[in-house]
Amino acid sequence: MYLTKEEERIYDGEEGVAKQKAMELLVALGKIYGADKLIPVGSAQIAGVSYKTIGDAGIDFIRFFSDNGAKVSVNSYLNPAGMDLSNWADAGVKNSFAKKQNEIIEIFRKMGINITCTCTPYLIGIRPKLGEHIAWSESSAVSFVNSILGARTNREGGPSSLAAAIIGKTANYGYHLDENRVANFLVRVRAKLKTISDYGALGVYVGRLVQNSVPAFELVQQATEDQLKALGAAMAASGAVALFFVKGQTPEWFLDSPEIIEVKEEDIEKLKKELTDEKDVDHVVIGCPHCSLDEIKNIAEKVHGKKLKKELWIYTSRQVKEEADKQGYIEIIKDAGGKVISDTCPVVSPIEDMGFKSTATNSGKAALYLKKLCKQKIHFGDVEEITE
Ligand code: F3S
Fold it and tell me: Does residue 233's CB lie within 6 angstroms of at least one atom of ligand 1?
């Protein structure tokens, strides 16, 4: 792998141990994946923020960089943390967890990382351009920016995205190269999809079939951005899809002798039933990936003037929450008894320690992860059904 003189100096430790370690990480990945060189990135998005997922070993890892003076050299953003950073006590988060979580946030802050704590930075104006190389790590965000915006990133891990943020570069392989941005499956969807949960179910179905390949979709009708966000997130969770195309909607559409998959109405219905294990649940979560303003508006309209009998927790970014507050949606949801939570997500917060055993969601990704990682029984359905 070719390194410039400057990169070699960093690799040899002439700019300190933190940059050296970051460079070693990028070069090691580059060698594994056959990269020819490093390329500059426009931004980095760093996962591995929740204390629940990284633990004390993760704190030691990131602290090594900050203690040795590391600073990020490109615009860098954080994935959700393990709690709402200002209202954690209301959500039943324990003091001991909050202390560790705040420690993590301060370490990232010291390195100059923006404390965005969202998996949908593209909903708060962080939208990389077509063809721009970036190093993002949240799988649903990777899927969105690669596919819907046409930016170029691999599914980075927390450590490699942090290394890319510090060096400002990543190894040139995978989805940074034209030859890999080609679909090998053509998915002909013969079903009329209406709701976010329909797209989530389609994503779970197709992700299982194509695993880490690139699918290209022919849909019956145009999908909204929220629906495509749900589709990509579900495929990234049931498989490891990082890039997909939608005919007439995504900026790229390249196919090479694709295998054909047909998806019918009954396939979607069957999968929706399979994702549900229990209809009577303790609580309802919406916002995986984090809700857009439109999604919050839709929920506010559904619960307006009602009194909820079960917990309804809605997850979004801090900025979208502020906007929703200005529009009056947060007050409507609060009056009904619901909560709008920012900075965190249902999967990386410790909901299983808060007494919840069963959860309803409209997200294909959350349906899979809440069962696997948070010991929840699931009711999968659209917003209309689960708020009802
Ligand atoms: Fe976002 Fe958490 Fe879902 S990071 S995509 S809300 S699992």
Answer: yes
